[in-house]
Amino acid sequence: MNTMAFTLFAVIVLLTLGITYWASKRTQTTTDFYAAGRSISGWQNGIAISGDYMSAASFLGIAGLIALNGFDGFLYSVGWLVAYLVVLIVVAEPLRNSGRYTLADMLAYRLKAKPVRSAAALSTMAISTFYMIAQLVGAGGIIKLLLGLQYEVSIILIGVLMILYVAFGGMLATTWVQIVKAVLLMTGTILLSLLVLGHFGFSVVEMFNQVSAKYGQSFLEPGKLYKNPLDNLSLGLALLAGTAGLPHILIRFYTVPNAKEARISVAWAMVIIGFFYIMTTFLGFGAALLVGQEKIMAADKAGNMAAPLLAEALGGNFFLAFISAVAFATILAVVAGLVISAAGAFAHDFYSNVLRGGQATEREQMRVAKWASIGVGVVSIILALIAKEQNVAFLVALAFAVAASANLPVIVFSLFWKRFNTAGAVTGILTGLISSILLVLVSPNLMEPDQALFPLKNPAILSVPLGMLGAVLGTLLSREPEAERKFTELYVRSQTGIGAE
């Protein structure tokens, strides 16, 4: 075990538990629990959004993909960056102005509450569960590599911490854990990028010249990793549309007090996320040159150890320990966001508004929210332990595909289509959700490639149109005058913020 890394891991655990204790004293109401009392300022929320969005897959995964596959790995950086622009420019502010705690709040504003809340809760819990199992399984493997802890111990450790953050500190603790993570991640990434550039006299051109000399010009051109254009297109669509439908990302916009702070948080997040994804280029190509592909693959065939090994090559054991601790904090922040998202969907949408018809007391809602957090966390730990021998990469693709197919069409139609109604929302969500899952089940992710009924690894290219078609047909086959009457009110509120504060 790396003693220095273990010490830094322990410091991060103690720091985040201290934040949770502080936040628990300030979390007394449901608004505190789900939205941090709407007390988060714009710049704080911008940093927290960055912390929620820049996952371990971005930090460790993209660096490894670039180091092993060159230009095609960089496509992930471009995809995630461009995808977030869709969130920030199209969805974020209207959603914040027309919702309260969850995605379903916005849909229920002008549609029938019980059907749309039930359907939205189902899709939110499915997306969060798929994404969380993938994060936990990946985290178990990474911490085993970094610290030498057993896979099961790693999963249980991370699972218990994420339950503590959310159940006791709610959104306030989750927010500050994400802020701490974002600061650590950006500090580590900037230092690592400067060390890489310094190795080439701070000349990006010289770095690429040496990449070309060592691996050939084709390493800097597309076609090494993705050979089927339809696979590229489907993956790109899932990233682009799916990010704007991920519940744990969208609920962050409910934590600010007004529309102005929401816009400020958008600006902060765009700058931080933009710089981060640009710097992954230096990490990936730097690792390919300064560490070498053989050593990276010897540590982890998927390339996830590229960034930590680059840190060790340039800064010795302490920098390796620091970057490993950053990766640990990154995992904690993302899974905490997923837990509070799934718990909110069950406790706020399904229990309080569907089962209890909006009649649950404040104390009852808080109790259910905390138990829902514990329940979601325990189930996720168990599923992650069961899935430890499985290749769970398809779960990430599935989460993005479901978000793109089930959530984004109904968000956009609800905000911008007057004729849209409850039947359209429920049909669209269920069609997108079910088609995504079925297509993945018969894809090369779970079947032999030559026997797969659906040839692409990501279903978005077919499931997104199906989700949209379901929403359109459901709407056109029924009328709901009340939903049409409330459209103008929702539109003005979503675009101006009037009535939202």
Describe, in plain words, how this protein is organized in 3D.
The chain crosses the membrane at residues 6-24, 45-68, 74-95, 116-143, 155-176, 183-202, 233-254, 266-291, 318-347, 368-387, 393-417, 424-447, 459-477. It is found in: Cell membrane. It is a multi-pass membrane protein. It comes from Polycladomyces zharkentensis. The chain has 501 residues and is mainly α. Helices cover 78% and strands 0% of the residues. It has 20 helices and no strands. It has helices at residues 3-24, 30-35, 42-53, 56-69, 71-98, 103-108, 113-147, 151-199, 204-215, 229-243, 247-250, 259-290, 293-299, 306-355, 362-386, 393-416, 422-441, 460-476, 481-485, 487-496. The termini are far apart. 58% of the residues are buried.
What is the general shape? globular
Extract low-pLDDT stretches.
Answer: none
User: What's the count of strands?
Assistant: 0
- Helix coverage percent: over 70%
- Oligomer description: single chain
Continuous helix count: 20
Strand content: under 5%
**Secondary-structure element order, N to C:** HHHHHHHHHHHHHHHHHHHH
Please compute the radius of gyration using only Cα atoms.
22 Å
Characterize the largest beta sheet: strand count, sense, and whether it forms a barrel: none
Task: Provide mean pLDDT, rounded.
Answer: 86
Instruction: Give the helix/strand class.
Output: mainly alpha
